[in-house]
Amino acid sequence: IAKNQGETEFHQAVQEVVESLMPFLDENPEYKFSKILERMIEPERVIMFRVPWVDDKGEIQVNRGYRIEMNSAIGPYKGGLRLHPTVNLGILKFLAFEQVFKNSLTTLPLGGGKGGSDFDPKGKSDNEVMRFCQSFMTELQRHIGPNTDVPAGDIGVGGREIGYLFGQYKRIRNEFTGVLTGKGLEWGGSLIRPEATGYGAVYFAEQMLITKSESMKGKTVAISGSGNVAQYAVEKIIELGGKVVTLSDSSGYIYDPKGIDSEKLAFVLELKNSRRGRISEYAEKFGVEYFEGKRPWEVKCDLALPCATQNEINTDDAKLLIKNGCYLVCEGANMPSTPEAVDIFIESKILFGPGKAANAGGVAVSGLEMSQNSMRLAWTREEVDARLKQIMSDIHETCVKHGKDDAGFVNYVKGANIGGFLKVANAMMSQGYV
Ligand code: NDP
Q: Which residues bind substrate (predicted)?
């Protein structure tokens, strides 16, 4: 803790992993002797840099850029870039640490990393975002490459930003390679990548429901967020016959008891992706209730999919969800539930899918984008979707294998941590003291 002062979210993520791994490590002391965990919590490399850019008024702005290269034992560093004013070293280290386990669970050869900046894209013009991205990549390009470190999108980084970043990389390095994922379809992107995290989380939720001989059909679902992950989670749930009744953003949430249908979802996509507007406009347009400054965990639902940000479900939210009949929580976002909330879910023995397993679909399809780039060919939508489904089912199986107790209850947190740890730890043991 002394070494990583003030990095609250990083401590939180490490503590969760250490607590659930300890009994396993006691039974398998070779990992303890090799100090694998101690090595895994120390990033292989942290890069911090100045990002100066000029705004539309001609004034110079200075942001801070980061890339955490956490672990490359099983493949090149891989993980998203986040642009949000809350970004700091501790948040990115927590995300990079989680990414190592998540990427290992995907069954693909991907190491773990994360990066971003405290730049706030909200209210910025396209030209300002472009100038920021170009300045950010001018430094980042010397640290990344298709066989070294392959960043992707995250909060605040979608197709537009990946385009600007890729353009600048290509211009400086004079090479067209798969150095970023989440690219446009015409220039190396993969079909299903935009949908992958949302679809993947729903596929994972379905697998959890199957263990209770149930399906998504007829289920009432509360979702938070209204960005990339939330949008495609809604799309897949509609397709599978479920009913999504909430969406949110950092200002508040909407409650639509009749359910968000395809037509209303099309409005959300246009609102959020083209106009970058607020979710409150949904309430005005469709005449439903809007709750300013609140999160959607107070509504009655069978399933909850937090798809916005970290620590958005606290103890009170967790208790309320269970009291209102919710019996499955599947994390589309990274670490949306506080450790106390996770304890409540596990003690209550509801189905709880942690982000590092449930939202791994995004990075999995990023891995598939890298494979297609290396082969210089493109798979069909059906092919990528089938692979995504298979990967989510394999991740679920790994969680069950390592997380099922004698009474048949599956602790998915334990399962994901042990499953993700083993592959990386074994690779590190084979590679010497690196
Ligand atoms: P987007 O930027 O597309 O959307 C984020 C959504 O969350 C927006 O609705 C945003 O509202 C809301 N939000 C962001 N910060 C806060 C906050 N501090 N409080 C309340 N709401 C907030 O991001 P994504 O959908 O891509 O990412 C959502 C989550 O999923 C993140 O935790 C991300 O790390 C995780 N994730 C994403 C993957 C991907 O492939 N995109 C892969 C795996 C995980 P507003 O518009 O008001 O900011």
A: 78, 99, 102, 153, 366
Whether complex ipTM tops 0.95:
yes
Tokens of 143: 């640290």
Q: Give the atom of ligand 1 at the shortest distance from the alpha carbon of 359.
A: 43
Ligand 1 atom with least separation from CA of 182: 40
For the chain, how are helix, strand and coil distributed in percent, rounded to 5? 50, 15, 35
Query: Per the annotation, does 117 bind a ligand?
Result: no
Pick left, alpha or beta for residue 152 (phi over 0 → left; psi -120 to 50 → alpha; otherwise beta): beta
| Cβ neighbour number for residue 426 with a 10 Å cutoff | 14
Alpha carbons within 13 A on the beta-carbon side of 44: 20
Task: Say which DSSP state 34 is in.
Answer: T
The reply to whether 153 sits in an annotated binding site is yes
**Active-site residue flag, 3:** no
Contact 388, 203 (CB under 8 A): yes
Query: pLDDT tens digits for 21-63?
Result: 999 999 999 999 999 999 999 999 999 999 999 999 999 999 9
Closest to 257 (Cα-Cα) out of 214, 301, 295: 301
324: nearest Cα among 353, 293, 302: 302
CA of 353 to the centre of ligand 1 (A): 18
> Which residue has the CA at smallest separation from atom 22 of ligand 1?
250
